[in-house]
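## Example pair
The file below holds two records. Each record gives the amino-acid sequence first, followed by its structure token line.
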Amino acid sequence: MATTPVLGAPVVRQRRKPVAPYLLLIPAVAVLLLGLGYPVYWQVVTSFQEFGLKQQFGQPPTFAGLDNYARIFADDTAFAVVVRSVIFCLVNAGLTVALGLAFALLMRAVHGWVKVVIQVALLLAWATPVIAAVTVFRWLFNEQFGVVNWLLVRLGFDGFQGHVWTASPLSFFFVATLIIVWMSVPFVALSLFAGLTQVNDELLEAARIDGANKTQILWRIIMPLVRPVLAIVLLLQIIWDLRVFAQIRLLQDAGAPISETNLLGNFIFDLGMNRNNFGGAAAVSIFVLLLTIVLSAPYVRSLMKEDEA
């Protein structure tokens, strides 16, 4: 039954959404699709093909279906690499965020030239190239003239005389963790410090007047306020640490057992460049993409909930 409009009633007009912002986004979206979409498409297609050295010289690839995935992930070596990579990623991300938060709180507590010195030191560590950083750490942990072995021997640990840190997987990943955390802490510390500067000092002063101690202020006031920044940097660290390649590769060149120290990035490199199994390397690459999504999903979901709230 049709309704007749009431005389004198205001007419509600639905506002049109502006089209200009969407039109302005088209060039950026096109660049992203071209720069990111095509490589992902190539990886997906190649992961379902037999693509080896012959295909590099022009022979057409043959369709393999899920054979690359079945062949790679039925191997115990690939499973060990996945477990090793996930553990290494979570440990490094946790240590990096914890130390970054400690430095951010330290920079908020100190003033004057002390804060400037800390910030400059963090920026210098962050700006150091990967090759230079790994080279310095290789010198520090060198079995013949390294400072670390020399210092440990002087402290009474004679077993470290001529100790080769890259010979065993445990000590190898200890050195790798030091390098990666050392290079990643500055970004986390400066990002969290920027978040801490937004905490209202009047709110903290009111909490002190009400009798809250430093621990209560930290966990019940400061941490909830910087939780969005903390979640973002933790998410980024998980993504970056899962894709570590250069640091591990450069340390392996110092004489480490490659089969026992490979992470996912190095395993993909070994499959493609050393074994000429580009189809298998592409399959592992797609798995890494899916694994990154799985590990990142809880943090992305929590960020979206906070944004809606």
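Second record, same layout:
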Amino acid sequence: MTNSNASTVAQELLADSQLQDALKSAVERVASHASQITEPLPPKADRQVEYQEALAEFSEIRAGKLYFPFIGSGIGNGPLVELDDGSVKLDFINGIGAHPFGHSHPELLDTALRAALGDTVMQGNLQQNAEGYRFSQKLLKHANQNGDVFQHCFLSSTGVMAGENMLKIAFQAKQPANRVLAFEKCFAGRTLAFSQITDKAAFRQGLPQTLEVDYVPFYDQNDPEGSTERAVSVLQSHINRYPGKHAAFIYELVQGEGGFYPGSSDFFKALMQVCRENGIMNLCDEVQTFARTPRLYAFQHFGLDQEIDGLWLGKASQTCATLFKSEHKPKPGLLSQTFTSSSTSLAVGERIVDLLTQENYFGADGKILELSNHFEAGLKAISQKNPGWVSGPYGLGAMTAFTPFDGKPEQAQTLVKRLFDKGLMSFIAGGAPTRVRFLWPVGATEKKHIDLALSILEESLSEQAADSAK
């Protein structure tokens, strides 16, 4: 009989001393080359023609121009990233929050290389390796810090698919309910179903209606009690008009695309209590907030552990996931994915969670709030020195935004492109007003990087103000 304590062949492979040396050498060589990247740099002249040709062809292939003229070279150094034209950018948007430890992080690279030695690239419904099992365990462990909140975790390759899975669970659990509730100015995603929930007409132009959605006004930090009363009143009105028809309320705890508006614990609890009384599931979209608030999960930051019924997460986690309760366990056949994610994404996602939770990132004295406060102080200083240039700041934790000038969309767009040309990557959010937002890499950012970003920002604002005055 085989010895049950014997190592597997895979374990023997990873313990191989020659392989260990090779992996260590690879990580060290990448770090050595990455160390040359120390500051934002303009493009190299001799790479411009080829780079512009590549951008044009890529835009044609994908049937749409890239938002930024960005094709990465494949290497960076923390918050700095090199493009294929030789330029270097201070990346404070990170693929809209998908790279929490920036670029070429040694520990994540080591984890990815080890996972890449596995027998398959992708894991899925029929064949899962240990990475998927461990990552699911870890997500549940940290979600249940304040009690037995969730019992199940289903992995997905994209955030919107994780959301779709949660929505399917809700409709099945609450059948024959066929409506959902969401906040005004929310962003849910771009699938057929979630484009109906996203409160932006342009995202569903020409698409057939697939869902009935009723909207509730979001929290107003300038009128906490009044906005809460109005939201509860509108919610109750929808419920009265369509009794028994709502399966779920989808909550963005911090509105991302809408403009980096955070809610409050009392606001969410008031709405969630009404939903609970009416048999409506409370579901949280944590795709952008995961690992960016003063707690790993935003629902924990807002103290909603006992209020919510399910959530989905993504971006910083690399592999996305749906967390839900046993009472809503779906019937066989409802959830299944050929690809849940790649082995490297699963392993790196687990390592990211470990690094964030084992080091001092969260809490009142954590790195996220320390850097957030530093960034906000810098934005306020620019505003005080130059009245009318900056309003804000807005957001929560590692989600930082401001309104440039009077918040017209063209002003924000121009500033974002100007910042990019000067070496700082940001993005827009909201519509009226339109804001500039940053999703800086929590695991790679230091105060000196924020100071550099603020310096580039102030210079760019000064130039834009001068251009407007002409």
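Notes on the second record: The CA atoms of residues 141 and 177 lie 32 Å apart. The longest strand covers residues 246-252.
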